[in-house]
Amino acid sequence: MQSIIASILLTASLSAGAGPQIPAKETSEVAQQVMPNAQTWQSNAEASKTKAAELEEKLAERNQEIEHLKKQLSSSKVKTTPEVKTEQTGVKTPWRTGEFTAYYPPTDVSEHAMQGNGITAQGDNLHKSQTCEGYQIVAAPPEIPFDTKLEIEVNGTVIKAIVRDRGGAIRGSKFDIALPNRSSAVDFGRQSGKWRIIE
Description:
The protein has four helices and seven strands, in the order H-H-E-H-E-E-E-E-E-H-E. It is of the alpha+beta class. The protein folds into two domains: 24-90; 96-197, Barwin-like endoglucanases, CATH 2.40.40. The chain has a six-stranded mixed β-barrel with strand order 1-6-3-5-4-7. A hairpin with a 2-residue loop joins strand 2 (131-132) and strand 3. The longest helix is centred in the first third of the chain and has 65 residues, at 24-88. The radius of gyration is 45 Å and the shape is rod-shaped. The protein starts with a helix and ends with a strand. Residues 1-6 and 78-89 have low confidence and may be disordered.
């Protein structure tokens, strides 16, 4: 009999949708414990949502910047292509001021220390000739590559020159022009003038 009553009560409670009831006192305690945490969770969620929106906005800005830089890079590549071609075809650079001295192949051992042994850095024998390919041999600063062709204007005279040598004191805009002997080098002395690359 008791089992029948228990079964009826259970069926009634299930059909009514009622579940186990929490006493009012326990419900109040649970609510007091959850409420402060719920407010913190809500605040954190709102802060995260705001931060996510800010990050999305920054990401969109960065993407725009990247696209802008890509366009600039592609347009600058287009602009530099003709410049490279003009340099390769030997367009002259602007004139620059410079200081010019002269050197010569040594005639005896005592001159070797100052003038070297008469062989250029590129292997030209200055005892035989001070020209290469029809151009006057010069010692130039290291930033100007070997075999660069120059125009040098000193005291109204234009010299067509080719870089075939270096020198310890040849820096900046200083050049040393190869001449046949000591007398011509002394006559040339130290002069100011101008120069430019022609090829």
